Task: inverse folding
């Protein structure tokens, strides 16, 4: 779904395709500023579009600007629109072994455990605790920590997971996060226990 979001941003900016050059990102940055009176830098846009390698993730304030740029009140409103009604279709993609291509938390019972594999040979195991919240049980090669609680609206093989909030030790650290690279994304998604 991240790819769909990036395409929608390009359409909103009336770009002919995905931004490739510094000038393309400058045009996009200027259009966001002209439309909203808020700024998202070229370098931030390059990281979001995967043109510059980075371990940092977009902040919630940047995600909210992008949500408003797409015509919604904030990032979560945009995600709610994007995934509205998708959960019924997703039910059909869950195979007998628990693997699936798409998954919304609406399809899960509290207590479900997900296993997510992403490049390069990384694994995350998440425990669903309800209301789009997942507790990290195990994770490799990430700044996220075991015990972190993540707000995630959906999962899709081939896409990165973009989330809006991390709760660590009972306190919101109030930042967006990305799990798996934008280019490769999730390579395997499985419900281990439902």
Result:
């Amino acid at each position: 779904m991240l790819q769909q979001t990036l395409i929608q941003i390009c359409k909103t900016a009336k770009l002919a395709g995905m931004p490739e050059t510094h000038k393309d990102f400058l045009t996009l940055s200027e259009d966001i500023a002209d439309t909203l009176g808020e700024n998202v830098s070229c370098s931030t846009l390059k990281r979001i579009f995967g043109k510059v390698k980075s371990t940092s993730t977009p902040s919630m304030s940047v995600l909210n600007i992008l949500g408003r740029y797409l015509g919604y009140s904030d990032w979560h409103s945009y995600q709610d629109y994007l995934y509205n009604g998708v959960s019924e279709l997703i039910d059909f993609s869950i195979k007998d072994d628990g693997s699936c291509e798409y998954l919304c938390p609406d399809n899960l019972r509290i207590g479900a455990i997900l296993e997510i594999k992403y490049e390069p040979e990384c694994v995350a195991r998440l425990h669903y605790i309800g209301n789009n919240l997942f507790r990290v049980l195990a994770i490799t090669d990430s700044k996220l920590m075991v015990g972190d609680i993540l707000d995630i609206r959906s999962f899709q093989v081939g896409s990165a997971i973009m989330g809006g909030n991390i709760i660590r030790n009972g306190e919101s650290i109030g930042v967006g996060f990305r799990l798996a690279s934008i280019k490769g994304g999730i390579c395997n998604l499985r419900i281990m226990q439902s």
